[in-house]
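Our preliminary data section would be incomplete without showing what the modeling component actually yields. Below, a chain of 327 amino acids is followed by its predicted structure, encoded as tokens that our downstream tools consume directly.
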Amino acid sequence: MNPAPVVTIVMPAYNAARYIGETLDSVLEQTFTDYEVIVVNDGSSDTVELEQALKPYMSRIRYINQENLGAGAARNEGLRAAQGEFIAFLDADDLWLPSYLEEQLKFLSENDFDLVCADAMHFGDTPLAGKTYMETYMETAPAVGQVSLLGLVSAEQSLITSGIVARRDPIIEVGLFDEGLRNSQDFDLWLRLLSHGFQLAYQRQLLVRYRYHENSLSGDKVNRTARQLRVYDKIENSFDLTAEERPAVLRAIEGRRALLEFELGKLYLEHGDFEKSRAAFSKANGLRRSWKTVVAVSLSRIAPRFLQSVSLWNVRKPHNDRNQIAF
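Predicted structure:
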């Protein structure tokens, strides 16, 4: 391995033994070859199987094994060990096309940006298979040009972590991933980069294959959704927004809070926790009143079991940790 590579590929792995060989093969097939690969085992329960799957690649990777601390902590461990000028993030079950690194670095060299995000094709057991990430999640705001703080906060723009190549120094400067967040750490990092004045951009080339997994049980979804709300708390309380940014950003946060509280109400409803469900629906209604929130609040008070049995909403399939919710 090159002791001073141009790119460090940081790959967190949690229970990924089944897929990681195919993912590493997609790395080794890259047309750009001046890179190092750091695989961080985040306390996987399949460590024996994972290490067996990694055996053929051990001469080509650096392997770190840590206790289970979450994806953000695993990526931070890789970042601290990285020697490359650029960081490429890749989840252990996603795949790159052979020209991925070459095209991403070419884009960064030709433009004055600190981070670039490429497009991805969904595959796996999902109705989204064959659709691209950008057409699925950014129908109202095509992914062209620069990424903005308001665009991310409002969810009109979104970034896929396995499609990111970034300069390492800005990530170090803003403090790496927030390990206090067990999900949405990537979303939080992109926002901090933007708030510090770094330049993020899209390129529309399709260079990634994003493997879709059905997310875990709805009990975990309750915790994930609640933690997403913490990111918005952080933006309001910790980000140094300009006088011009603050009104629009706070309006966008209010809208996202309404959507997330509504989603939280649905999740509590699934579990039969009618009191918490009613409280979440009430919060959503107070933030952004609509006929659905009004109906949900009313029925959660007078007929919660009936409400539990009917569908009053449409929910777009989530990507990673960020729910894209439509009222």
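Residues 7-212 form a domain with the Spore Coat Polysaccharide Biosynthesis Protein SpsA; Chain A fold (CATH 3.90.550.10). The first helix runs from residue 20 to 28. Preliminary results of this kind motivate Aim 1 of the renewal.
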